[in-house]
Design a protein that fits this description.
Blueprint: H1 3-16, H2 30-33, H3 35-51, E1 58-62, H4 68-78, E2 86-90, H5 94-103, E3 108-110, E4 122-127, E5 136-141, E6 144-153, E7 156-165, E8 182-185, H6 187-203, E9 205-214, E10 224-227, E11 230-232, E12 242-244, E13 247-248, H7 249-256, E14 262-268, H8 269-276, H9 278-288, H10 293-304, H11 306-310, E15 313-319
Parallel strand pairs: 1-2, 1-4, 2-3, 4-9, 9-13
Antiparallel strand pairs: 5-6, 5-8, 6-7, 9-15, 10-11, 10-12, 14-15
Amino acid sequence: MTIADYMAAANAHYYATRDPLGAAGDFTTAPEISQMFGELIGIWIADLWSRAGSPPFRYVELGPGRGTLAVDALRAASRFGCAPMGVHLVETSPTLRAAQSARLPTAEHHDEVDALPDDAPLIIVANEFFDALPIHQYVKTADGWRERMVERGDGRLRPVPGDIPADDAIPLSLRGSQEGAIVETTPVSAAIMQRCAFRLARQGGAMLTIDYGYSGPAAGDTLQAVKAHHFADPFDDPGEVDLTAHVDFTLLADAARPASVAVSGPATQGDWLKRLGIDARLKSLSTAAPGRADELKGQRDRLVDADAMGELFKLLALTAPGWPSPAGFTGEAA
């Protein structure tokens, strides 16, 4: 099977059968590290909503984990009178749906973006959502580009080049790469981003995407597996490890532009959080709980520092025609 089919099948089983987050799980996301992360997203939403004229809107989150980000963001936004007319979570895992419902009992669940309501502007948040979507991988061989496939050999799974030429799938700027080079594409991610963008164009609103990744096109193998907070072999224990790949933010931006939405970013997570006021929020929390000052500073550093999440993680925003430019990004929306 293709890498994409393998990744889709493995992750479908993985997420359907466990809560992978936290110390007892396999990985930790920014909302689980600190309340400051979700709170600043809530402030970002409230600011944009206010400058857009305070319209009724629906809050949407793609792949919302345990619901921690939504709880923190909605709490912070409500302090400014910003409250959605509904909370909508795009989630397929029964285990995570249960965790989300415990924290957000009035939220509605949906299996896909196309099922979202179409009666009001949407403010969509996607934190570490696109990295878990299936990717195709192509490898440069002596005979040209071939799609990477997964086969069983010597008692284990392994990636191998396929038989069918795949040069047309490779961006022109990368076709001359040296033998052994790997290029990744993710049509599923592009399709979902484009559906969200056209929703915004029709209904109004904005989308904020946060993930680890790069601005492509670029060559490189970014497929990785994590288990118990350590890297693992992506082809061992399928369905029992978290499979992800770095997100190409150029691909996401290009997928959104046909909808005529404004694209802002990508900005690094560290810069964005500092522009939104994470240091002021840290000071406020530390003053209220002096005994936690060192712990809170450690949380802030993990989110912001370049050698932690600050540089690798990036943010991209979409805003509907007629909506104001979003806070936290430098320059004009394109």
